[in-house]
UniProtKB/TrEMBL annotation:
Residues 25-125 form the Cytochrome c domain. This is Cytochrome c family protein. It comes from Kiloniella laminariae. It comes from the Bacteria. InterPro entries: Cyt_c-like_dom, Cyt_c-like_dom_sf, Cyt_c_1A/1B. The keyword Transport applies. Keywords: Electron transport, Heme, Iron, Metal-binding, Signal, Transport. Residues 1-24 form the signal peptide. Pfam families: Cytochrom_C.
Amino acid sequence: MKKIALMAFGLTAGIALGLGTAQAGDAAAGEKVFKKCKSCHTIEADGKNKIGPNLFGIIGKAAAAAEGFKYSDAMTESGVTWTEEALTEFLTKPKDFMPGTKMSFGGLKKAEQIEDLIAYLQANS
């Protein structure tokens, strides 16, 4: 009986840990995905804003935090913090996640590309 209880606990804990852990992306592959973003964004420390804001250190920052960039009201008033989950939703369909955003990009279709891009953003945070 004790052995069954321990196995059940281990299985439950393993499932809980698996559901709570984000999939790790490949930062090198994410750098390639970022090429789609480069026409509007920079990622270097102290990089310039372009059509879109500089994204260095974006993970964990509040939305609309890049100095000197004029954000949409939707972004400024969103109250969003750029977590992996928020970025995943935003990068999937930006205008669905944040109606009124100025970002014209339609989104990434492949979950793996999003995971890789987030890994690249994390590496540059």
